[in-house]
Amino acid sequence: MPKDMLFVGSIPCDTVEEVFRTWGHTFSPSLKYMPDGEVGERLHWIEGQAFKVYNGHPQIETLTRPQPDNGRERWKPRDLSDQWTFRVKDGVERVLWADPGWRLGYARDALNSYFIFKTLKKEGVLPRELRLLVALPTPESATLVHFRDPTQRDIIVPSYEEMMLAEVATMTENIPHDELAIQWDAACESLDIETGLPWLGPPTEARFKRYVTQFERLGAAVPAGVAMGIHACFGTLGGWPMIKPDNLVKQVRLLNESVVAAKRKVDYVHLPMIENTKPNYAAALKDLSVGDTDVYLGMIHNMPTFPERLKNARTYLTDFKLAAPCGLGRISRPEMEAVMRDHKQALNLLHQ
Predict the structure, then answer these.
(1) CATH number for domain 5-350, candidates 1.10.3470, 3.20.20, 3.40.50, 1.20.950
(2) Domain limits, the chain
(3) CA nearest to 274, candidates 298, 307, 291, 310
(4) How far apart, in whole angstroms, are the C-alpha atoms of residue 216 and residue 103?
(5) What is the pTM of this model?
(6) Most buried of 74, 105, 174, 222 (most Cβ within 10 A)?
(7) What tens digit of pLDDT does each residue of 251-305 get?
(8) What is the pLDDT of residues 109-155, one digit of tens each?
(9) DSSP symbol at 86
(10) Pick from 217, 203, 204: which is nearest to 158 by CA?
(11) Beta-carbon count within 10 A of 184 CB
C-alpha cells in the first residue's frame, strides 16, 4: 500500500501505547512515520515549555500567565491574549540552563516512547519499517510567542537553540537512526510571515530570512540516517485556523527556501491548507520546488468539500500525500472516531 499519510504530532489519547495501538496500528500501512501523540504536556505544544522550562528560571522573569479558572491554577492558555509571556532579566547576556540534553524534556519523552514503539514492533502491532516521529518546535517558534521584546531575540533564541540541539543529540545517540524521524514545527513562523504578530508588527523580509536560515543549523544537527521533516502550520490556539490566508504563496516560499537552507536531505514537508474551494487558492503549489522531498498537503478536514479541494490541488501539483492541517491534540476524545473515518475517506478519494 502507498505510504500516503502523515500525522504531524498530537493525538488526544491518554497514553503513548494507546496512540500506537489505535491510530498507529490502524493507519500503519499508509505511514512512513508515526508520532507518539505528544501526550501529556506536549499535547499543548509549546505551552509545556512555558510552564516548566521558562517559568521559574532564575534568569527569566514571568510577565503574564493564563488566567485561573475560578481561582484554580491554569497553565494552558485560551488564546494569544491569555498567553504566558516572559523577559530575560536585566544584565543577562545569555540564558544558562541545567542538564543539557534533558532539560527541555523532549529527549526523555522520545526515549520512553521509543521503548513502547520497539516493543509493539516486536509484538507485530506496528510494522518494523515504521519510524518514530519526534516533533520539535523550531527555536524561533518555541520563543517567538513567549518572549515578545524583539530586542531580546538574540539573547534567548541562541541559548534555547543550543539546548534543543542537545536534546536532538541525546535522541540520536539512543534511538537507531533508521527508526527515527525529526520533524521541525514552524507554526509561529507561518503565522508571522502571513499577517505579522501583534507585538512585532507587519511581516518583514528580515524576519522571514531569520526563520529560513535557522534550518541550516537545525539540519546540521540531525544525522544523515535520521529522516527529517518540516511542518508549516496555521495554528489551533483559540480554534482552527488562527489565520486564513487567501493563498499559499508565502507558505510555499517558506518551505522552498527552508529546504535549500537545510543543506541536507529533507525527507518531507507539510503544507497546511484551510477550507477554501476557490480554484486559485492552491495555485502557488505549482511553484513548490523541493526536489524529491515528499509533500504532504494538510487537507483532511471539512470532508464535504474535500473532493473539490483535492481536485483543485491536483490542478497545480500532481504528486503529493495527505495529512490533517495540524496536530489533532485539540479535538475531543468523542470526536476521534469521526476524525479517523475522515482520514480513511481521504485516503480512498486520493487513490481513486
Answers:
(1) 3.20.20
(2) 5-350
(3) 298
(4) 23
(5) 0.96
(6) 222
(7) 999 999 999 999 999 999 999 999 899 989 999 999 999 999 999 999 999 999 9
(8) 999 999 999 999 999 999 999 999 999 999 999 999 999 999 999 99
(9) E
(10) 217
(11) 25
